[in-house]
Specification:
Length: 277
């Protein structure tokens, strides 16, 4: 049987009793990162006197080796007491656990998923934003037209949008959002459940100015307040008619069309050149 184990998103004391009991009998540990899992088990052993089998095997299981790993150990899942452990939070959400669930379903292998903390749900509860509807987008694409389209989608959504972001890209994200809708309200949660947990709430522009003076460390959850239904929505032609620099206009056009920023920019430049002839 395979059990998916939720782990604390920060504070080790958030581990569940069921998780500890599952660790104590497991003979096969599949880990998003074996180093992270062994570190957690060491902490739990010291603080809660937890013990797990000395001969337990630890194997990495991630987005790069998951398929190959199943070819190696798939048959063992039905015979052993196996667990899957993600780095932090609920397994399967934003990690490669989906492959394991599908494998168990396809091969009629018994599996169980224990409930536990998730960063996006914890942050949403802390945000104070009204309404219970939200979309979870995890990490957005890093660059290119895919990122522009994703940003346009979350900003035009009629439900709150929840994102994850790494510290070295947080200011870039805020700058991008500021260029599109600087007045939009955000809620940011830093280092959830840890010693330096911090909440921020305000407009994109205010938070951008504030965080430029802050040492940005740790993982962040960003919640973008839903677009109000009575807000005006700009069309492609509306944006074309605006007196904006080509680069800025190209970014806006990309978000309301199926064209990349580069395609929109080239279109604008060609139109300008044609008009001069």
């Amino acid at each position: 049987m395979l059990t998916f184990i939720p782990t604390p998103i920060g504070n080790p004391q958030d581990i569940t009793i069921r998780a500890i009991k599952s660790f104590e009998v497991a003979t096969l540990f599949l880990c998003e990162d074996t180093r992270q899992t062994k570190h957690l088990l060491h902490i739990l052993s010291e603080r809660f006197e937890m013990k797990y089998p000395n001969d337990a095997q630890f194997l990495s299981f991630n987005e790069h080796n998951g398929v190959v790993r199943l070819e190696e150990i798939g048959e063992r899942l039905a015979k052993e007491v196996a667990v899957y452990v993600s780095d932090a939070g609920m397994p399967i959400i934003s990690d490669p656990g989906q492959i394991l669930v599908e494998y168990c379903q396809k091969h009629s292998i018994a599996y169980d998923i224990l409930p536990g903390a998730t960063a996006f749900a914890t942050a949403f509860a802390a945000s104070g934003f009204r309404g219970s509807h939200f979309g979870f987008y995890a990490f957005l694409p890093h660059k290119g037209s895919d990122r522009s389209k994703a940003l346009g989608h979350v900003l035009n959504a009629t439900s709150h949008a929840i994102l994850y972001e790494s510290p070295h890209r947080l200011l870039k994200l805020l700058e991008e959002l500021s260029g599109i809708d600087s007045a939009r309200e955000l809620f940011l949660a830093k280092e959830l459940t840890k010693k330096f947990q911090t909440y921020y709430r305000g407009s994109v522009q205010n938070l951008l100015e504030q965080l430029k003076e802050v040492q940005i460390k740790g993982e962040w959850v960003i919640i973008i307040h839903a677009k109000m239904q009575n807000e005006a929505t700009l069309s492609y032609n509306d944006i074309l008619a605006m007196e904006l620099a080509p680069k800025i206009k190209a970014k806006l056009l990309s978000q309301v069309s199926d064209k990349s920023v580069k395609e929109c920019y080239n279109l604008l430049i060609n139109t300008q050149n044609t008009a001069k002839v």
